[in-house]
Specification:
Low-confidence stretches of chain A: none
Number of strands of chain B: 0
Distance between the termini of chain A: 42 Å
Strand content of chain B: under 5%
Radius of gyration of chain A: 16 Å
Order of helices and strands of chain B: HHHH
Largest interface: A-B, 32 and 25 residues
Oligomer: heterodimer
Structural class of chain A: mainly alpha
Helix content of chain B: over 70%
Largest sheet of chain B: none
Shape of chain B: elongated
Chain lengths: ~160, ~100
């Protein structure tokens, strides 16, 4: 990364994409990467627990599983920012793959709650060392990867 | 279709390549995901197209120590966009392979 771009400009670009991928910029917001209203929030808001629990192929997970994994990854980032280096069972992070309506609401709330906490923490920290920038960028890319997976799974489930 | 996702990912990178070269070309999103269906030769072409433009853009960005802010945002958006479509492609493969 060039050293003559101010850190604030890097953070601004990153947070714009962060809000877009999470779908928290509000309905009809301008997008750089996605179709309008195709981020995590509007995508998951339109999915019920039964749909979220379906698997599209043997040995695959479900939308609920992808959502649980995305939340766990963000929680991992939060723990790293807190100075911990937790051991994570990434295989278990895709569980539960099946949810009832109450559990599905809880899974969605968990994802956005941890995303909000991480964003607030990053916003409150004006100076990011290079290592932290790479961590945050990699988590943004990770969120985008699993959003692409979820939206494709949704197409497969709905036929 | 995986071929369409691949074509679209290449197109997005080609747009960024044009912007970095200061060529602001009109966009054609409806055709960015074509062809939907490919034979072996066309599929080989789409794959080569994606990796060729990725290498050109990567080389150009690495060779330029002074990025404009617009280029920074474009590079990050392209990385995020590639990840999104890779996630979709890998789910398509799971369905196709059963």
């Amino acid at each position: 990364m060039p050293d003559d771009i101010p850190a604030a400009a890097i953070q601004t670009a990153l947070f714009e994409l962060w809000n877009e991928i999470l779908g928290q910029a509000g309905p009809g917001a301008d997008t750089h990467v996605l179709d309008p209203d195709a981020g995590w929030a509007p995508t998951l808001a339109a999915v019920d627990a039964a749909t979220a629990s379906q698997r599209i192929a043997p040995r695959s997970t479900s939308i609920a599983g992808q959502t649980a994994h995305a939340a766990r990854a963000l929680a991992y980032l939060e723990e790293i920012l807190d100075g911990h280096a937790p051991a994570v069972d990434w295989r278990a992070s895709f569980l539960p793959a099946e949810v009832d309506p109450l559990a599905w609401d809880g899974r969605r709330e968990l994802l956005f709650a941890v995303a909000d906490r991480v964003a607030a923490r990053l916003h409150g920290d004006p100076g990011w060392p290079r290592e932290q920038l790479l961590r945050v960028m990699s988590h943004l890319v990770h969120l985008a990867y699993h959003l692409g997976a979820v939206r494709q799974m949704l197409r497969a489930v709905r036929g | 279709m995986v071929a369409a996702q691949t074509a679209h990912a290449a197109y997005y990178l080609e747009l960024f390549e044009a912007i970095v070269a200061n060529r602001h070309e009109p966009t054609d999103w409806p055709n960015s995901s074509r062809p939907l269906e490919v034979d072996d030769a066309a599929w080989a072409h789409q794959k080569e197209r994606l990796f060729a433009v990725a290498e050109r853009v990567g080389a150009r960005m690495r060779g330029n120590p002074r990025w404009l802010r617009e280029h920074l945002g474009g590079a990050m958006a392209n990385l995020t966009h590639l990840a999104y479509h890779l996630g979709a492609v890998r789910q398509m493969l799971r369905v196709a392979r059963g």
